[in-house]
Amino acid sequence: MNDSSIKAVTFDVGGTLITPLQSVGHVYAEVAAKHGVKIAPAILNHQFARAWKRRIEFNHSRGEWAGIVDDTFQGLTSVVPSQVFFDEVFDRFAEPEVWRIYPDVIPVLDELAARGVILAVISNWDERLRPLLTKLGLAPYFENMIISCEVGFSKPSPVPFELASRKLGVPPGEILHVGDSMDHDGIGAERAGFQWRLIERDKPNPEGKWIATLEELESLV
């Protein structure tokens, strides 16, 4: 049922609006190969997942990304990526060609914008996000972007959500946040008093707060 109390919708970015065209391991392997380091993407994907899980807190700074990349290659080569090719890896993920927009994104953003719904981004990301969304053609949809590297707080802290509410001029209870992570999006939105939904496109019949496509937002807003 349409909920007329929702005046604004905020979106997470990675896993919600966009996803890497190839795996992280593929990009790492491609760049490393140019520097004589040849490792299978599947191995790098496994190592990346382990390195990521070890991070209790991650502030998406350039230095922290360098640490992730070094940890991903640790034990696989004597080359230290942060001293050789990290800058190239970092810059690659700023290129729109590395990413794809999920098919349901543009139609839903168009529909919500046409209805006069205020749209914004709340994302744990770094300084690459604004130019990336501009290059992908998504930036014009959003009245504001709350990015963790700029505000100094990452989801699930309620601070980014509270800041979004103030900047948009909409009470928290009248904002619906959409993301793909319970730990970051669901908990953060709940703490800030936002309504929320989590997307899991690979799940055929999600229940409760989960949706299978952004198109379901059209019946909620």
Please explain how this structure is put together.
- This protein has 221 residues and is an alpha/beta fold.
- It has two domains: 128 residues, HAD superfamily/HAD-like (Rossmann fold, 3-Layer(aba) Sandwich); 74 residues, Orthogonal Bundle (DNA polymerase, domain 1).
- Helices cover 40% and strands 14% of the residues.
- It has ten helices and eight strands.
- The protein has a six-stranded parallel beta sheet with strand order 5-4-1-6-7-8, sandwiched between helices.
- Helix 1 packs across helix 2.
- The longest helix has 13 residues.
- The relative contact order is 0.18.
- The mean pLDDT is 94.
What is the straight-line distance between the termini?
A: 8 Å
CATH-level-2 architecture of the largest domain: 3-Layer(aba) Sandwich
Beta-strand percent range: 5-15%
For the record, what CATH class of the largest domain applies?
A: Alpha Beta
Number of domains: 2
Main β-sheet, spatial strand arrangement = 5-4-1-6-7-8
CATH topology of the largest domain: Rossmann fold
Global geometry: elongated
**Mean pLDDT level:** 94
What's the total number of strands? Answer: 8
Rg, Cα atoms, Å: 18 Å
Largest sheet: 6 strands, parallel
Structural class: alpha/beta
- The H/E string reads EEHHHHHEHEHEHHEHEE
